[in-house]
Amino acid sequence: MSKNVLILPGDGIGPEIVTEARRVLELVNEQDNLGLELTEALLGGAAIDAEGVPLPDATLEAAKASDAILLGAVGGPKWDTNPDFQIRPEKGLLGIRSQLELFGNLRPAILYPQLAHASTLKPEVVSGLDILIVRELTGGIYFGQPRGVREKEGGIREGYNTYVYDENEIRRIGRVAFEAAMARDKRLCSVDKANVLEVTVLWREIMEDLAKEYPEVELSHMYVDNAAMQLVRAPKQFDVMVTGNMFGDILSDAAAMLTGSIGMLPSASLDESGKGMYEPCHGSAPDIAGQGLANPLATILSAAMMLRYSLGAGETADRIEAAVSKVLDQNLRTADIMSEGMQQVSTSEMGDAVVAAL
Amino acid sequence: MSKNVLILPGDGIGPEIVTEARRVLELVNEQDNLGLELTEALLGGAAIDAEGVPLPDATLEAAKASDAILLGAVGGPKWDTNPDFQIRPEKGLLGIRSQLELFGNLRPAILYPQLAHASTLKPEVVSGLDILIVRELTGGIYFGQPRGVREKEGGIREGYNTYVYDENEIRRIGRVAFEAAMARDKRLCSVDKANVLEVTVLWREIMEDLAKEYPEVELSHMYVDNAAMQLVRAPKQFDVMVTGNMFGDILSDAAAMLTGSIGMLPSASLDESGKGMYEPCHGSAPDIAGQGLANPLATILSAAMMLRYSLGAGETADRIEAAVSKVLDQNLRTADIMSEGMQQVSTSEMGDAVVAAL
Ligand SMILES: CC(C)[C@H](C(=O)O)[C@@H](O)C(=O)O
Ligand SMILES: CC(C)[C@H](C(=O)O)[C@@H](O)C(=O)O
Predict the structure, then answer these.
(1) Which residues line ligand 2 (CB under 6 A)?
(2) What's the CA gap between B74 and B352, in Å, rounded?
(3) Which of A204, B178, B188, B349 could form a disulfide with B214 if both were Cys (CB 3.0 to 4.6 A apart)?
(4) Model-level pTM?
């Protein structure tokens, strides 16, 4: 039985990195007889340019019909000044997350031993780092209504957004996090701002409630400002962290950067049934697009995650991850992770090396 | 003419650290004939215990009548479970900020050369670090209405808060930030999430608008997730950063922790006229309260900031800062900044040393 994989190259370095991941997927598809059907569609700025909207109907239909989605990255200054806030690349990404109910965002921050020096933190602070951030992805202030810019008396404009979560939304992301903790070191830190924001008082209450179903998991709570501090001070204290959409956006980027090699980190966004969209943690990096400087490994590792979690091909995923580890052992490095004594390679040369290692 | 200084010890380590700062203030008051009248009042958990509310009327009246306020810190687990959200220590702090319109929060993140090793970041990444974070303190999601927990159909509860800023609020904090940049390296980075949140689209627009009045200042914009990353990756790229209440809470704590010595960092919260409340960047640290472990230097440096910005005693402030530098040169360290070869001292011994140096 064939499986449909939708590929969304997106903007900036998206097309380059996705090209390499696609080569890897095509190779393992043949080698391991996976029966994958790969198709591509437009999302983000590329879709705005071609069709006038960031998430064309055809893309949404293809996404719904697919078994899994691999995304490059979206966004860029070209579309940032569009006066219509709905016609921006990010709206395409947010639309697909929301329409497909991909509420469970898993963002690992792992330090690769071969890249230990790449971190700006001292080796003893980050060596062996392995955190999983579970971010709620289809609710919170990203999607809350009402929102907009309105006029008050006197013609003064006021911008407003709504940070909202209901019990069910909190419970379902909580469950993802507790399950993830069960499969790891059984420690879960829930991040909120319950000393100021009522919405996170409810968040904390539901997490406490869920903890009764997972007596083996040690649940702790941390205010978001303290969490940002603790990530810098002693990141290895964390196993799994769970938080809302906005705090998760900030903390997962900070955590990823602790490793110094955000070009290496994949992510998964899953719905209730385990169907998902997979993408690198990094952005579309328009400043280096088209120069062969981008690191395709985060996207290749995202493809591996996709094979494991949504396509039932865990062994193929293992092979890809081993191949990535091998090219690092061969001292091959793209510009972002380059260091003395290593050999700098381009985006496509890195893809070549992974293909060769497979 | 005498000047009234209101001292709010607060909770946890607050009373201990404020005691040392008060000794310093009393000494310089005599030495430099400043005519300061020091009085104390209750705020936070201490006020809840004594009066049942976190911000008693008497405290608010005294605060309004004062020329400047020195605060220790508020909060602790003892009051965290209070079912009435209004009767929590933090509400006292937020109340005083709001009632006195202390909208301009200045949070420097400075690396003391004597404490360079204390950072978890590599020396080359943080040496010479000197960032000023300007945080809006009386608006945004901290104070936005409507807010609370309500029931939806089916009895499902939903928590909600409102992130709101009007043009005037944005403009007045922007002005503080541009002025601060003018007095420094003339580079201002405004942090928002304008690709997702409408309220920060307005924020960005007003910052752009203000930039026309400050042609010498180089204004840039950064999304908050990227800002959190850049603070870890290359913090020295920043001079002044300006952002809203919630993002400022998170980023200023992360920035402070980059120095590794949050026990050294003062902060100021100013109103339109320059009247202000001064407090250490760190919290009430209930876990080490009453053990003589707390570092009083951030509070002593906050007192110096107070003398400079609100009490017209800049030379006295210089003297206090020099005294703090001297005790560091004498290798005296409280537990939080202790390292090999240094001499560990208690909270009061550190106070003694500063007093002796003066
Ligand atoms: C592009 C942007 C809308 C997005 C987000 O904020 O969620 C990105 O930062 C991410 O984390 O995937
Ligand atoms: C105690 C708390 C309400 C406060 C805040 O979030 O503003 C604190 O974290 C701070 O930064 O001063």
Answers:
(1) A 195-196, 225; B 75, 90, 93-94, 249
(2) 24
(3) B178
(4) 0.96
